[in-house]
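::Amino acid chain::
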Amino acid sequence: MQSVELSIFRFFAQESYEYYFQKYPISYDASLTLFDALESIPGLAFDKSMGLRVQGLCVFADVQLQELVDKFGVNLRIEPLNQKYVEKDLLINREAMYKRYDEFFAAHDFIEPSHRYELHKFLWANLISLRDDSEYLGDGFFLYMHWLLERYPKHFDTLIHTLAGSQSGVMSYVPVEALIYTPNPHTRAISPIIKQLIDKVARFGICPGCGCAWISQLESMRPKALTQPLLPASLESALEPKNSAQSAESTPNRCMLFDAYTLREAAPMITSARALLHTLGVELVDCAKFGGFIPFGAKSGNFYAHILEPETFIQRIFYNLIIAHKASATLVFGDLEHYAYAKWALDRAQENPALQTKIARHFGDAMEAVSIDSLLNTRVKFIGDLVCSDTGSSLVDNLTFATYPSTLLESPITLPYGRNNLLGIQEPKSSNTCPSTPNQNPKNASDLLLGLIPIAHSIKTPAQRLGGKWLSVLECAQDFSHLYEFNREAYFTQSARVRFACIDSGADVIIVSSVAQFRAFTTHARAGAASIGRDDVQIPILYPSQLALLALGQHAGCDSRTLRTLERA
């Protein structure tokens, strides 16, 4: 028998306004599960159908204690999903949550009484997000609205109007999968369903801010379809001579750096990534001679573009892949977000023959002798995976880092090495398979939910090779950067809350994985601090490539102010 200490949240609303954590030593063997252990504690109130949090992550399906000990250690912090609605200990007051929607049901009297009660089955999903936003209607409510739309198609316009609020509705959704350790075994996935609602609201909903259809408000977020010559006419003359046996697969050290970003904050990433590739001895091909890359989405980013116009979005990604493929080069991304979307597009095309045919037909002569099968094997890399630890810098070794990986895309990514990600979430071994958890039938549809872990490709592990102390800050599991265009209040407050969570945890530096996150933490740092009533604190924000160069004693991409702040840290 082994022992684990559970530090359990205790509270009783009818007796006290104060909560506390009580420690319980538990002896266990390989068969004991978390829920069984909790049920053995006299007087402890909890509802396994609602779930709870372990080390901040949501546990909805039972899990063996040994698994949790292996991932988090022998001291486990057990909390309710949300303290606001606690009735006693780990027990959530569903009726208090339900009352929030009294006005909604009063205004929609066509909903049958028995169908109103169905909302209780979705309320657990309201409690996953760490956001502090009282206007937001809740992810569980959106799952319920999807359920209602299937049963009340005649009231589609009325229900869509409820979802269309710029601050309260689905357009302000932030993926939550990175906060889920085990999914709810009785409910379908969250992000795919809500993204369906986003698409419906964008096309048929009215934005309350201007009274216009959402789709007109989001026009800048939709990528424009590629027309006229789809690849530059000069492409063939620009190609370097190569024999027929040469291909992207046979030249792994030949790379092209993706540089088509819509935000100016990408400049230090591009500079440092290019310098790092040169330092690593990589043969770097200039994409300009091939006409240059193009942005994936539009000026406002990729999140809504990949929902609203997925085929056009994929088409733009393949434009860039063709350029890299014809140059027999690996396409390297300095940011995790664009790398993830490139992998997502390749995976989508790999599993969809009809999409492959459309891509081949769309690019026509530009592909020439390039087969769609060989194009699907184009190499793509995240620069974090190229980082080595041969050379260490005392500057880096003495700093404490927090990482903020992008969590906007829920599709898993095939990893070049085996490990657990930043928050200890189980990861699929490949992009086409899903892991199973103990006590679950692998044929059970609920297992498929494990395949919806958001961008398991964390930047923590490659960065750890560089030295320094690394923190796991739970708030970093959500990315609010895509809300900038139309919900700036949430964008500023939630992004600032994450940044200060890193600062308050003792981080000297925050490593970000996307350009939009870099903008939120730098350009808009002061406005964000003001939105939550905090004095602005200067803390260096770095891309992985900048950190790697610092570890090698180089400063490319870092301005003098950042370097001075690093030296003082």
The longest helix spans residues 310-326. The two ends are 45 Å apart (CA to CA). The longest strand covers residues 2-10. DSSP finds 23 helices and 16 strands in the chain.
